[in-house]
Design a protein that fits this description.
By secondary structure, the chain is α/β, with parallel strands linked by helices. It has 23 helices and 24 strands. It is globular and about 80 Å long.
Length: 646
């Protein structure tokens, strides 16, 4: 360990509660006061001797590497990468009316809708992770006696006024009142505290550690931040870029003339989907300076790609990058979008918790959307023989097969591996609510066209790092609530959403502890690769990067951002949870590399071919809609169950 690591605090023990997890162990250390204490240096060095700690079993409080931790993917890789088929002795179990593979939002919704149709049905959900909810996962910390609740994946119920009757029915079943978020989300928090958006430049890449308190548009419509006091010229003058680059950047920010005015609205949309953002600003706005491109390179962030592979229309109209008027979007202005405020403190994990409590009432007390936030879940009650609905975690399905019966109704056999043993269960039907790319390996009898379609849907890898800190005084002092960081490891960093619901209260002042949320979307830019090729390489990077390396990036980046206002990573960081999702956002069709049709349900799309029913097996996941949105996951669960019940 060098002096730099010690200054970052990698030699300081921080509290992390980890647990032995199925096929593998997560990082853990000596038990001190009921908690597992691990030195960051040991993590970085790969010294990951593990032992079971902290009873009862409660995954949301686990720290270190989460999302897809060690133990959740090894068996699947043996199936998909190495073609393993022999899993030893198989133990028969009960027969269920429905088996659901995957306990994410889509799988839970499928189980819920099936229970409504068949109240006495026996349902088994099987998931390879150590917690339910899929990407809708919850991170918990305790700092100075105060519980902090954050999200490690799915954030929000976005634009709920557009939800279908199917989704609204589910929300009603769970007692979720969308209007409740109008007050739960403190929409004046940022303005009251003078917190603006900003651009962060680090010394390593830009020669100076500096935050420019100016939002170029990436947070507009996402966070109700205070307006910048800087003009575009003043903001660019503070950027550590050349004078020539400054001239171009100001021109880009202030450009008002529609460069596509000769095109019809439809032709303009098609064109903006056919050209990358980088090519658009180069060709139409005369941007040539490398430093301008470098600042913008990764700011089309949750597209999962750089500006060289992100369509101009997506980067501008969705990502908020400069060029809105130049692209002719001003003549399409209508009603404002719904505010991005429909968050539980743990994101959509509370929806998953509500679904589980609805189906297995003994798992937690309460009955409202408010009390779900702080009620304690008893995971020992998820999988009990006397329950009609059972959730079996830490179990990876390796085989799903239709069984033809001469006299009885056709069935499905499902083989899964838990620990070092294989088990087989049977069901009258099965919903595959797992990743599309895994399904051909689980069910090789599928038609070849369907297998190919399933394999073509490549998810976007994402990394959400959740950092608990002692206070947010440096943010207050700098007047910053969220920043983008060109060229840095995490592209987005912000104070967590200011949501208070039920007994849970957000930080009451800058002297109080808070969660910092950081995002990374690993990919490879400017190498002439397709989006899917970039995602696969990003996935490889994500799964081969150690927690220690990510922790070092977190600490150095926060120091670079905030040390001028008194922040010290060694002193102020209390705990870190890294949520890596190698298979993150559902596959979306990038018109720069794939065919896009007018109707999203066009039968030529891979997701439409992929989701066809096969005997007593149906497929329901976000991939089935080619969308990472909550409402689509719910609707796919409903569709799958409807197919089985018709």
């Amino acid at each position: 360990m060098n002096d730099s690591d010690m200054k970052l605090g990698l030699n300081i023990a921080i509290t992390r509660r980890d647990v032995l997890n199925g096929m593998g162990a997560m990082v853990a250390g000596a038990i001190v006061g009921g908690h597992s204490v691990t030195h960051a240096a040991d993590v970085a060095a790969g010294n990951s001797l593990a032992m079971p700690v902290r009873q009862p079993y409660y995954p949301p409080a686990l720290m270190g590497m989460r999302g897809s931790p060690v133990g959740s993917f090894e068996v699947a890789h043996q199936v998909a990468r190495y073609g393993r088929k022999d899993w030893g002795e198989i133990n028969s179990d009960d027969t269920y009316d429905l088996i659901v593979v995957g306990a994410g939002i889509s799988g839970l919704a499928a189980a819920h809708f099936n229970q409504k149709l068949n109240p006495n049905a026996k349902i088994l959900l099987i998931d390879n992770h150590d917690d339910f909810g899929g990407h809708a996962t919850r991170n918990e910390f305790t700092v100075n006696g105060k519980k902090l609740i954050g999200y490690g994946g799915a954030q929000t119920l976005q634009e709920p006024s557009e939800y279908s009757d199917i989704v609204n029915t589910l929300l009603d079943d769970l007692g979720i009142d969308i209007k409740r978020f109008d007050k739960a989300y403190d929409q004046q928090f940022y303005k009251r505290n003078g917190l603006r958006g900003g651009i962060h430049f680090n010394k390593k890449d830009w020669g100076v550690d500096r935050i420019v308190p100016f939002d170029i548009g990436t947070f507009e419509g996402y966070l109700p931040l205070e307006d910048s006091v800087l003009t575009a010229q003043q903001a660019v003058d503070q950027m550590p870029i050349s004078d020539a680059a400054k001239v171009e950047f100001v021109r880009l920010l202030l450009w008002e003339d529609n460069q596509l005015i000769a095109m019809s609205s439809q032709a303009r949309k098609r064109y903006l989907n056919s050209i990358s953002y980088k090519d658009f600003i180069s060709k139409h706005l005369n941007i040539t300076e490398a430093e301008v491109f470098a600042v913008l390179q990764d700011l089309a962030s949750d597209s999962g790609l750089g500006i060289d592979a992100c369509p101009a229309g997506t980067a501008i109209n969705y990502g908020g990058l400069p060029g809105y008027l130049a692209a002719g979007y001003d003549d399409e202005q209508g009603e404002d979008d719904e505010p991005y405020i429909h968050h539980f403190p743990d994101g959509n994990a509370s929806v998953a918790r509500l679904l589980v409590r609805k189906m297995i009432p003994d798992v937690a007390k309460g009955h409202t959307m408010e009390d779900i936030v702080t009620t304690q879940f008893d995971y020992s009650k998820l999988d009990r023989a006397q329950s009609l609905v059972r959730i079996r975690l830490n179990s990876t399905v390796v085989r799903v097969k239709n069984i033809k019966a001469k006299k009885a109704t056709d069935q499905v056999s499902v083989t899964y591996v838990s620990g070092d043993r294989a088990h087989q269960v049977k069901g009258r039907a099965c919903v595959l609510a797992c990743y599309n790319t895994m399904i051909p390996h689980l069910c090789p009898e599928l038609p070849e066209q369907q297998r190919q379609a399933l394999s073509r849907q490549v998810k976007t890898p994402i990394l959400y790092s959740t950092v608990a800190v002692r206070n947010w005084q440096p943010w207050k002092k700098l007047g910053i609530g969220a920043v983008v960081s060109p060229s840095d490891y995490h592209v987005h960093t912000k104070l967590d959403f200011p949501v208070s619901l039920g007994d849970y209260q957000y930080s009451s002042g800058p002297e109080q502890p808070v969660i910092i949320h950081m995002e990374r979307f690993p990919h490879r830019s400017n190498e002439g690769l397709t989006a899917h090729e970039q995602f696969r390489l990003g996935r490889q990077e994500l799964m081969t990067t150690s927690f220690g390396t990510i922790e070092r990036h977190i600490r150095s980046q926060l120091n670079s951002m905030l040390s001028a206002a008194g922040f010290d990573a060694a002193r102020d960081i209390v705990a870190i949870t890294v949520n890596r999702w190698a298979h993150g956002y559902a596959s979306w069709y990038n018109p720069l590399f794939e065919d896009v049709y007018q109707d999203w349900r066009d039968e030529r799309y891979p997701h439409m071919k992929a989701r066809k029913r096969f005997g007593q097996i149906t497929i329901a996941n976000s991939d089935s809609a080619a969308s990472a949105m909550f409402e689509d996951a719910v609707e796919q669960g409903y569709r799958a169950v409807s197919e089985l019940n018709t």
